[in-house]
Amino acid sequence: MKYITKGRTLILFFCLMIFTDLILYVSIDRIDVKLDKMNYISDEWEKEITKNAENSIYFDSDKKVYRIVLTHKLTDDMKGKNLTFKTNDSFVDAFIGDTPLDTSNSKQIYHFGNKYSYCDSPGTIYHFVEVPESDAEYITFRMETAYKNKFLTNYDMAVGGKNELIIDYLHNELSMSIPNVIMIIFGILLLAISVTAKFINISYTETLALGCLSIAFAIYASCPLYLCQHIVRHAPIQYYMYYLVYFFLPLLMLVYFENIVPNMTVNVMFYLCSGIAAVLSILHFTGIAAYTRTINIFNAGVAVTAVVLIVMVARRFKKIAFINRVSILTLLSFCLINIIFYVFVSTLGNHSYIARAGFIIYLIFACFDGIRKIMENIYRQRENGLLEQIAYTDNLTELGNRYSLERVVKNNDIEKLSIVSMDLNYLKFTNDTFGHAGGDVLLKSAAVALKSVFEYVYRVGGDEFIALVYDADEEKLDYLNFQLNEKIAEMNIRRTEFAEFAGKDQFRLSIAAGHASYEKGDTSYEQIMQRADKIMYVKKRELHNKNN
User: Fold this and answer.
1) By the 8 A CB rule, do 206 and 256 touch?
2) How far apart are CA 85 and CA 38, in angstroms?
3) For the chain, first and last CA: distance in Å?
4) Phi, psi dihedral angles at 45 (to 5 degrees)
5) 516 half-sphere exposure, CB direction, 13 A CA radius
6) Measured between alpha carbons, how far is 212 from 438 in angstroms, rounded to an integer?
7) How would you classify the pairing of strands 46-50 and 91-97?
8) What span, in angstroms and rounded, lies between the C-alpha atoms of 509 and 489?
9) Which among 257, 267, 306, 402 counts the fewest CB atoms within 10 Å?
10) pLDDT digits 0-9 by tens, 5-41
């Protein structure tokens, strides 16, 4: 039986599991499981609305405070359960007692919101108020806020078990969580593309800005409020995360467009948005005016920036890469839709679900373009490497050629240079006796011998070789020549490099070599090489005379 690897076993198990699930899905009667919707309490609420409340423990006396007190009969359906609802920038207290709309003589069962010296917003959050088993007749809620645009007179309050309410929130927010997760995934992918491009020396900076923009927008668009609340677990942190990331978004957008639009600079707009954000932060942390009160100033700056950016992009639209032109209008539309809804419609809730889908499409195009550019560059670098190898390498011996020799000499100090000029003996005899195949083997064998001794060695002619040696004295050059002769003698004895000609006694390797070093007055490596050639030819003649 053929041996089965662990990988094949896992694949087989996975296929069997899928097949079994499909069979069960078809054969077993299915029961639809439905989540019960939240049981909202929409009637019998008594209200007491005050638009200039006094004696607030959360706000300074010079601020106008908006307060609503809600009371409901405490029924058996509420006792032992949780009441849940959402508030925006409001302090919340809950009480149980025997008198409606009375918080002074009632027992407090819940509190949310801490007072900060530089912020009058405790954040936006979902509340889960556990109602105790009690003989009290009423439950009362008191909400206070300093923001007129966040002051609500009606709340969607639901009752149920805490786990049931949490599951319902997560179920309702799932459709909004998925786009955020997708944006974060694409943002990470774009950052990975940017790092890869940097690693292989490609100038592709727009992926870095767009990747950061995608992740920042996913954080800013905290539409799944409960999910964000569950992760962060601190409403003021959510508050600052929302505003500080929002300040960061237009800066990333400007940098991104500067990267993809040729000959466009956004310095003025970049520093304008940065300056407004800095001023608003100073006003906030000095207690003069919180972000919630001044954010429309930043919105106005972003709106002006967006209009100017659109004009600048439109004037250079034809110069932008085609794939960016196809998707760029989606991104601009997203910015405009978000600003319009936020400024002119409401500062509450989610405004950009459709635009977010368009932004995800834009990210898909950007990732595709980034991967395409990296692959094209890798292919181009491979082609360039191949062309360089062809241009600077001798195809037969795989040594450097004359062009490679000249490039190396040009980039090194001639005063430290010594040159060994070498000529292959008996190449014509080998070609005549064993054919050109024999001559090729002899040349390759010579290359093996030379590479074993010299670091820089080149084939500059049919049977001519040059080796470059740096910082060498006469003793070292003589020793290198000795090593070369030893290597040649070893190869002639072992004959493993001679391939099919190893059994031919007349097939032998012999190299004549002569060396010369830099002398005062030399201005080029050719002068050194000429002296080395003369010495080499002298030794070559001596060798021929000896053999004859």
Assistant:
1) yes
2) 11
3) 69
4) -90, 130
5) 20
6) 63
7) unpaired
8) 8
9) 267
10) 544 555 555 565 566 556 655 655 544 444 456 688 8
300 CB-side CA count, 13 A: 6
Structure tokens given for 470: 């740096």
CB atoms within 10 A of CB 376: 11
What's the longest Cα–Cα distance across the chain? 130
CA dihedral 414, 416, 418, 419 (to 10 degrees): -30
Q: Contact, 398 vs 509, CB < 8 A?
A: no
CA distance linking residue 258 with residue 262, whole number of Å: 7
The C-alpha atoms of residue 211 and residue 173 are separated, in whole angstroms, by 24
pLDDT tens-digit readout, 534-544: 999 988 888 77
State the DSSP string of 208-263.
HHHHHHHHHHHHH----HHHHHHHH--HHHHHHHHHHHHHHHHHHHHHHHHHHSTT
Q: Are 153 and 105 in contact (CB under 8 A)?
A: no
3-state secondary structure of 409: helix
Query: pTM of the predicted model, to two decimals?
Result: 0.61
Distance CA 212, CA 11 (A): 37
CA distance 347 to 88: 10
**Which element (helix H / strand E) includes 366?**
helix 353-392
Share of the chain above pLDDT 70, in %: 86
The β-bridge partners of 393 are: 400
Q: Tell me how far apart the alpha carbons of residues 399 and 451 are, in angstroms, rounded to a whole number.
A: 8
What is the per-residue pLDDT across 429-451, written as a single tens digit (0 to 9) for each?
Answer: 899 999 999 999 999 999 999 99
Sign of the torsion angle spanned by Cα atoms 160, 163, 168, 169 = positive
Q: Which two three-digit tokens encode residue 218?
A: 């996913």
Distance from C-alpha of 342 to C-alpha of 350, rounded to nearest angstrom: 9
Q: What is the pLDDT of residues 43-95, one digit of tens each?
A: 778 999 999 888 888 887 778 899 999 999 998 888 999 999 999 889 999 99
Count CA atoms within 13 Å of residue 144 on its CB side.
22
Q: How many residues does the chain have?
A: 548
Task: Name 426's Cβ contacts closer than 8 Å, sequence gap at least 6.
Answer: 442, 508, 510
Strand segments, DSSP code E, in 359-470 are 417-424, 456-459, 464-470
CA 229 to mean position of chain CA atoms: 26
The region of weakest confidence among 76-80, 287-291, 299-303 is 287-291
d(CA 287, CA 62): 13
Distance CA 466, CA 424 (A): 11
The tokens for 192 are 């990975």
Q: Please answer whether residues 465 and 446 qualify as being in contact, where contact means their C-beta atoms are separated by less than 8 angstroms.
A: yes
The amino acid sitting at 478 is D
Residue type, 112: F
Measured CA to CA, the distance from residue 434 to residue 428 in angstroms comes to 10
For residues 291 and 307, the answer to whether their CB atoms sit within 8 Å is no
Q: Which residue has the higher pLDDT, 224 or 405?
A: 405
- Picking from 421, 423, 390, 418, the residue whose alpha carbon sits closest to that of residue 404 is 390
